[in-house]
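Anyone? Bumping this.
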Amino acid sequence: MLSVQAAALAADASRPRIELKVRPRVCTLSDEDTTCNTTVRAQWRSSRNESLCLLIVDRPQVRQCWENHQQGVYSVEISFSEDLVVELRDAELDRVLASQAVAVIRRALQLRHRRRPPWNIF
Amino acid sequence: MTRILRKTLPLLALLAAVGAVQPAAAQAPCKAPSPDCIAVGDLEVSVSLGYGTRTNPVAGRDDIPLFVVPHVSYYGKRFFLESLEPGVTLYESDAHTFNLIASPGFDRVFFNRKDLQNVIVPLAAEAPPGFADVNVQAAEFPVGRRHTTYLAGPEWMFRQDNFIGQVSALYEVTGRHKGHEVRAAVSVPLIQRKQSLVVNTGLTWKSAETVNYYYGVPGLYKPDGALSPFIKLNYALPLSDRWTFTAFVHYEYLDGSIVDSPIVSDREVVTAFAGLNFKVL
């Protein structure tokens, strides 16, 4: 059992680091907006050929796979209202190789009482 | 002055009572943008186009027409600007607000047509610049130039249900007369649905220095302090997101120490305006 885990760790350690960049990094919602409607662009790069798939968590319709590639780019127009998590998984979709998120920031609407000096015209 | 107090205090008490029986609402915290709640950081710019007039109690001076009334307001976390009045909020809760404000001296509007408080009056005939001789009862008194003054001081606003009160104690800080002014007012909405009708009433007390700067005549008339009550009705009917029909009438009953000045010919000042307000920002 220990030897199996050690072998898996060794395999992970030997696996080259896969760099994943996602743009935009954040989406800021104004007071009136409830969802971000934007094109998300994901770019990955590795030091050796990889077979992997790019997915977006909770969006099963989004999947782009590469067979024996060192890099890849994928763009998708998407609407989201919560943080959007983009993942690179191995070809079997079992293991997450890299992950990045597009954060949704809601502008906190801070309100305060307005002065209405009756001495003024309005 | 006591006669004015006798007339005014019951009115204030009546409005306070009216405010007290209004359904509870306005003391609730600001949870959504509304005419009384503004988003921090927002700049609002609007302009009203219409027709109005402000009567001029100074003898020999024309009434002041109003055609275009611009309005700017900005509220930061502490700093705010409401038209010509900047200020800093020291403390704010749902019921009380304490500000430090700066506010222009209002009386200059009667002496200088170009005063910003007279807004834009492009079609009006200009009053003669500098000195103008006023002929009152066969005597001539020079009505000299009154400079723009600013007063500054603390302001307390309090809210109880729909009733809003405010009191400010101001000191002239631009070095023209070094007078004081105390302003107190209450505001009660009579209608507050899609359209709104709000009544404001209050008192303005001006120290002898302030009154003398505007209405004194050297060697002839040195007035005391003045306590002048006013009432204002404000009506607004939103027509769309940007357009609102708006109208108001403001009536001020001047204290005897102002009216007794030889350069003053009217006891009342009425400002009225009706037009369309366009929200630019």
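Late reply, but here is one note on the structure posted above: The longest helix of chain B spans residues 2-20.
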